[in-house]
Write a structure and sequence with these properties.
The chain starts with a helix and ends with a helix. The longest helix has 29 residues. The protein is elongated and about 50 Å long. α3 packs across α5. The chain has one domain. The model has no long low-confidence stretch (mean pLDDT 86). With 149 residues, it is mainly alpha-helical. Helix content is 74%, strand content 0%.
Length: 149
């Protein structure tokens, strides 16, 4: 497995983080924790790679929402899940995207934000900060567990 980590480590983490942040399921947290345990990459490399991949994946979902909005305007009939995301975003605005890392509903927030045409740069900032804090917490937890063993 070490050979895999040396060859595909950061690239694999980036791909896993990207896919995890789109509407497809994924598990970048496990990849991050595994690579952190190998100590072959700095925490900065791991945090930056995971955050970049996950943020770009979320922006893909945001742009998908923006694209869909061309055909279905903000007042179109929505599924219950998306209607809930829209309701929350209407109430809290782009800062709610700090929670775009949450499983299942985070993707809905990103899609709804694009669909509602929330400002790109504010959305990007909130998404990136939320993702970075989540990955920093995972790194901290993986180091804490490793040192306790």
């Amino acid at each position: 497995m070490t050979q895999w980590a040396e060859t595909f480590g950061l690239t694999g983490l980036f791909i896993s983080a990207f896919v995890s942040s789109t509407l497809a399921p994924g598990g970048s947290e496990a990849v991050l924790a595994y690579l952190a345990g190998l100590s072959q990459f700095s925490d900065g490399q791991l945090l930056g790679t995971a955050t970049l991949g996950n943020t770009l994946g979320a922006l893909t979902t945001w742009f998908l929402g923006r694209f869909v909005a061309r055909r279905y305007g903000p007042d179109a009939v929505l599924s219950t899940g998306r209607a809930s995301a829209v309701t929350h975003l209407r109430r809290w605005g782009w800062p709610l995207l700090l929670f775009s890392w949450l499983p299942i509903i985070g993707d809905g927030f990103c899609f709804a934000a694009g669909w509602m045409r929330l400002p790109f740069w504010q959305s990007l900032l909130a998404i990136a900060l939320g993702k970075a804090f989540r990955y920093a917490a995972i790194l901290w937890a993986s180091h804490t567990v490793a040192s306790a063993l």
